[in-house]
From TrEMBL:
It comes from the Bacteria. This is Glucosylceramidase. It comes from Cohnella abietis. Belongs to the glycosyl hydrolase 30 family. Keywords: Glycosidase, Hydrolase, Signal. SUPFAM superfamilies: (Trans)glycosidases, Glycosyl hydrolase domain. The lineage of its organism: Bacteria, Bacillati, Bacillota, Bacilli, Bacillales.
Length: 466
């Protein structure tokens, strides 16, 4: 029986710790290293009557609620699938369970897939409608996701859904088919001018949604173009806000016509350009009506932009769709995402191997959540980031609400708090300092006094007071 259904345990608080170690150090690709705390469950704490202990205080107000949480997860881009395919069935199953099972793993419940290849792939770049130069296919008669099936992408997602049926999937394209683009190439370029190309791309995206649905994989949401302000030497496509708006409207019509309920998330790029990009779309009546949410990446700018955009467009959900980070500084960034109205968070790239492969990004990636030994492909190890992310994903349920709490201080501890649908309260606390920190949590006439080791994250969970 759950702790939160056992009234005799009502005043006890469950505690888990994870710690950082050598964050972002490329040595994690070459071999594992002992980590002090790996989602380690500690002795329960007791809630007591408040006193005047002069220590940093986290004050929680569970009746003041904010955004609903959709989920936390990572990506199933082809590089990860490629490495998983090299493992034995037993080892693959082990990793699947560790990724999505809430009891024996970290409980990721929101996964990002790519529509066609991204830069993180071991394959030649492809889309679902690749033609010879000079050809076109406005009726999309040669559309097919067969490569996704052949490469095991579809099978992997299907298996994860079998293990975790409530898991949600959203998808992002890195480029339209080359024949739709100004440079006739999946890399760089723009969508060709004209309504016929906008409509063709909308139809292409709608057919991708249907094709995955036919495979038993419903897509909860779709972003229209990964990083639409970027042109680079891997699948990419510059798309102005005005063209993005046209595409959102055209895709919405396709979804309505074909009775599809997949959400449309616009933008899918950096905080720094958020205002410039989303306002022309959301200030347009049709664009606003076509848009369900706004997706952000965290490579430039600050999370506070999400709060500003949410204030301006309160009926739109906010999503952090791409960024991998390292150490307790990253954990505090997670805190900031949710405190600034994100309803979800997804890491980017789940598993590369010990040769940092295979991928076609233009730089050298930092350590991934899981690393595979290239010389012995069934062997793998987890970086501290796997556990640090799990401090949130394992405990924050779909449908949870962020609740009011004071942020705290990077000189002591910072936090974010949630009320789960089952009535449990979850507080994630981050200690970025070089020293152990003692603090207390105050909530509705009770306090919990806790100690948190240096450079560590703790999750506290207990039954709701009411």
């Amino acid at each position: 029986m759950s702790l939160f259904l056992n009234k005799q345990m009502k005043d006890e608080v469950e505690v888990w710790w994870s710690s950082e170690k050598n964050p972002r150090d490329r040595a994690w690709f070459y071999s594992p290293s002992p980590i002090s705390y790996e989602l380690e469950q500690r002795e329960n704490l007791l809630a007591t009557a408040p006193d005047v202990t002069p220590i940093p205080t986290i004050a929680i107000f569970p009746k003041i609620t904010y955004q609903e949480i959709l989920g936390i997860g990572t990506s199933l881009e082809e590089s990860t699938i490629y490495n998983l395919a090299k493992m034995s069935h037993e080892k693959r199953e082990e990793i699947y369970t560790q990724l999505v099972d809430r009891d024996s793993g970290v409980g990721f419940n929101l996964m990002r897939i790519t529509l066609g290849t991204s830069d993180f792939t071991a394959q030649p770049f492809y889309t679902y409608n690749d033609l010879e130069v000079g050809e076109s296919d406005f009726d999309l008669e040669r559309f097919s996701i067969q490569k996704d099936i052949d490469l095991g992408i579809v099978q992997t997602v299907q298996r994860l859904l079998e293990i975790s049926p409530d898991m949600k999937i959203f998808a992002s394209p890195w480029s339209p088919p080359a024949w739709m683009k100004t440079n006739e190439d999946i890399r760089r370029g723009q969508l060709k001018e004209g309504k016929q190309y906008t409509d063709a791309l909308a139809k292409y995206l709608r057919k991708a949604i249907q094709a995955y649905q036919e495979q038993g994989i419903p897509l909860y949401a779709i972003t229209l173009q990964n990083e639409p302000l970027l042109e680079i030497d891997y699948p990419s496509c510059y798309m102005s806000p005005e063209r993005h708006n046209e595409l959102a409207i055209a895709l919405k019509k396709e979804l309505v016509l074909h009775s599809l309920d997949t959400q449309i998330w616009i933008f899918d790029h950096n905080f720094s350009d958020g205002w410039m990009y989303v306002s022309p779309i959301l200030n347009d009546k049709e664009g606003n009506a076509a848009t369900d949410g706004i997706a952000f990446h965290d490579y430039e700018g600050e999370p506070s932009v999400m709060r500003e955009v949410k204030s301006a467009y309160p009926n739109k959900t906010i999503h952090m769709t791409e960024r991998s980070l390292w150490g307790v500084e990253a954990a505090d960034r997670f805190v900031q995402y949710f405190r600034n109205w994100a309803s979800s968070y997804n890491a980017w790239v789940t598993m590369l191997d010990s040769t940092i492969g295979k991928h076609q990004w233009v730089g050298i990636p930092d350590p991934t959540l899981i690393v595979q030994n290239a010389a012995s492909t069934d062997e793998h190890w987890k970086t501290p980031e796997f556990y640090l992310t799990g401090q949130l994903s394992k405990f924050i349920q779909y449908g949870a609400r962020r609740v009011e709490s004071n942020y705290g201080s990077i000189d002591t501890v910072t936090n974010v708090a949630f009320l789960n649908p089952d009535g449990s309260l979850v507080v994630v606390v981050v200690n970025q300092t070089d020293n152990e920190q003692q603090f207390r949590i105050l909530i509705e006439g009770q306090q919990i006094i806790a100690d948190l080791p240096a450079k560590s994250v703790a999750t506290y969970r207990w039954s709701s007071v009411n």
